């Protein structure tokens, strides 16, 4: 073990991913530790539970905010609960003094955390792998429009199709990957997510009026409730954007929609 690595042992309990780190959380390990937790969340377990024992050291209370950063990053998508189990008083003190405990649920045992998870929000999802070619933008729009019609969420169809087109075009233009497009309906949120094999985050370009396509991230940011880029579970990244459903549609989905 070096100061630049944190060992991670994981196990599955009741559909949740329990992560037990070993090593020192400092400036040299902060980013890789954060990204590892984000990757576990991207696999969409019922929850991600960080189990902190004697073999894990937090160099300063400020660095403990990694847990609230992860909690915030995954709250919109994929919407997976993040919890911390503290076996040591020193960890509890760091999480409390840094303010993390105000946002991230803190428990004394894994069992207590599992009991607090509750039932996940109902989801519907549809995914397609598109070719690494210019035609993917059109195919992405058609896929999203067809899915929105089947799910009865026409209110977001135009924005969702535009987001899918822009994110897909970004992948085709700037990577050698075949984009994987996924749409999700979860509670009051409709999400468009595009995965590729390139770990680099997308770069925002200046928004101009003389370009028909390729407007990219500025457009996504302007029309979505929230958007972000997360490391994918098995390499690469996922760029996602969330649209809010009208209140009448939220009521219909929560009460009458069958699960697909």
Mind sketching the topology for me?
Elements: E1 6-13, E2 16-25, H1 30-42, E3 48-52, E4 56-58, H2 66-76, E5 82-86, H3 89-97, E6 106-107, H4 110-117, E7 123-129, H5 136-151, H6 157-174, E8 180-186, E9 189-196, H7 217-223, E10 226-231, E11 237-244, H8 247-255
Parallel strand pairs: 2-3, 2-4, 3-5, 5-6
Antiparallel strand pairs: 1-2, 7-8, 8-9, 9-11, 10-11
Q: How big is the Rg?
A: 20 Å
Q: Ranges with pLDDT <50 over ≥5 residues?
A: 248-260
The run of helices and strands is EEHEEHEHEHEHHEEHEEH
Category by helix and strand content: alpha/beta
Q: How is the biggest beta sheet arranged?
A: 6 strands, mixed
- What would the principal axes of the Cα set say about the shape? globular
Ends distance: 45 Å
Short characterization:
The chain has eight helices and eleven strands. With 260 residues, it is α/β, with parallel strands linked by helices.
Question: What does this 3D model show about the protein?
Answer:
The protein is α/β, with parallel strands linked by helices. Helix content is 35%, strand content 27%. The protein has 8 helices and 11 strands. The protein has helices spanning 30-42, 66-76, 89-97, 110-117, 136-151, 157-174, 217-223, 247-255; strands at 6-13, 16-25, 48-52, 56-58, 82-86, 106-107, 123-129, 180-186, 189-196, 226-231, 237-244. The strands form 2 sheets. Strands 1, 2, 3, 4, 5 and 6 form a 6-stranded mixed sheet that branches. Helix 3 links the parallel strand 5 and strand 6 (106-107). Helix 1 runs parallel beside helix 2 and helix 5 packs antiparallel against helix 6. Mean pLDDT is 88; it is low at 248-260.
